[in-house]
Amino acid sequence: MGKVAVGVAVGVAVAACAVAGVVVGRRVGSRRKWKRVVSVLKELEEACETPVGRLRQVVDAMAVEMHAGLASEGGSKLKMLLTFVDHLPTGSEIGTYYALDLGGTNFRVLRIQLGGRRSSILSQDVERQPIPQHLLTSTSEDLFDFIASTLKQFVEKEESGSEPSPVRTRELGFTFSFPVKQSSLRSGILIKWTKGFAIEDMVGKEVVTLLEAALVRSGLDMRVALLVNDTVGTLALGRYHDADTVAAVIIGTGTNACYLERADAIIKCQGLLTSSGYMVVNMEWGNFWSSHLPRTSYDIDLDSESPNPNDQGFEKMISGMYLGDIVRRVILRISLESDIFGPVSSRLSIPFILQTPLLAAMHEDHSPELKEVAKILKETLEVDGLHARPATPLVGILKKIGRDGSGGITGGRNRSDVKMKRTVVAIEGGLYTSYTMFREYLHEALNEILGDVAQHVSLQVTEDGSGIGGALLAASYSSYSVDGVNML
């Protein structure tokens, strides 16, 4: 397939289907049938061809879309949302802080104790709690009363028997990973529910206000220091460990990115003043689109049959939610055009039956008899017998902020007079951490696009940015600190 010859999703599809073909290839009686299989895979590979020149076109398109999204509301498919986070953890934070991570039908509460030195987390306690099914469609008061009650029990359990601390209000970072329009660091209106929630009276309401009211009703003395999403939490955790961290990417079931932008570059908020001169911008890059992206017929069909056609196009091409289904569609076409798998299995027509972890297991099966591939095909699909896409938008971020060697969005490529800074990108998500081939392809593509500049760019895996990062940001914005420096 070559280094960056095939896009991530379909590169995986080609590999998995080729492996599947090998499993049954010994039983193919007709060379004509096998040629049909090869033809399907060849067509797929050609549709995904991504030479370095094309990848750089995607990089440029991302940088331009970022600029447009910063210039005006609705000016780009990238929302480029202001987070009002204008400084990040420095490592000097001291004290005990809490986080509430609500991003699905489970939520977590965390407590961390910071020692005042970078990467010095003295202790960490976490509790996961499922949300009862009836609360997903109940009222906002019922939901937050349940959360506040759980949080209170957690606080009392963790603080029992510990040394009494100075009299002060406990502080909480609230990670709320649902569509929110923020108007300040501590305020945001819920735009719509996702992930199975349907609490009608909460849409259009301030989520922090609702949470704090529940905390008061529970009798828990706690202040919500800020409202963030999981990507911003990942950036905060990355920055806590490494001061050169300027961006964060999540590649898991879904995908998103955020980065540190100059405040004067956010044109849609003229006169925006921050103490640091910077602000973290939540890109919502799952909706990115460019005509230079290698979109195949399988991508088009998946999008048109989805509940949100023409939306989240980039996410549908690279994230864990969709990769397995792209492969299923390729195998289904092979089955329809050739009977090398025998009669067409009805399971091949079931959307999302082939999940990405199974795809990863197939792709990484190096056994002589490809036993894992055969097992998955048989058990999951009842059948006998993608890789440069995330890298290009990531380089687009580096280009926008002048960290790709070009000097920024208006600069020329590979300027020799640009002194390269060390650049760290915090990265999180099971698709990146657990899928070895996916990770290797992404690194390969970064090296191809950036050339010599790649030696200055480091991808650092973080763990639990949505939780720990929220608590770290609570420490950064503590009412007991001045300009981000803890005064305790």
UniProtKB/TrEMBL annotation:
Keywords tagged on the record: ATP-binding, Glycolysis, Kinase, Nucleotide-binding, Transferase
Gene designation: LOC105140348
Protein name per its UniProtKB record: Phosphotransferase
Top-level class of the enzyme under EC nomenclature: transferase
GO cellular component: cytosol; mitochondrion
Superkingdom of source: Eukaryota
Occurrences of domain Hexokinase N-terminal (ranges): 41-240
Family: Belongs to the hexokinase family.
UniProt-listed InterPro entries: ATPase_NBD (IPR043129), Hexokinase (IPR001312), Hexokinase_C (IPR022673), Hexokinase_N (IPR022672), PTS_HPr_His_P_site (IPR001020)
Domain Hexokinase C-terminal: 247-475
GO molecular function, one term: hexokinase activity
Protein's organism: Populus euphratica (Euphrates poplar)
Involved pathway(s): Carbohydrate degradation; glycolysis; D-glyceraldehyde 3-phosphate and glycerone phosphate from D-glucose: step 1/4; Carbohydrate metabolism; hexose metabolism
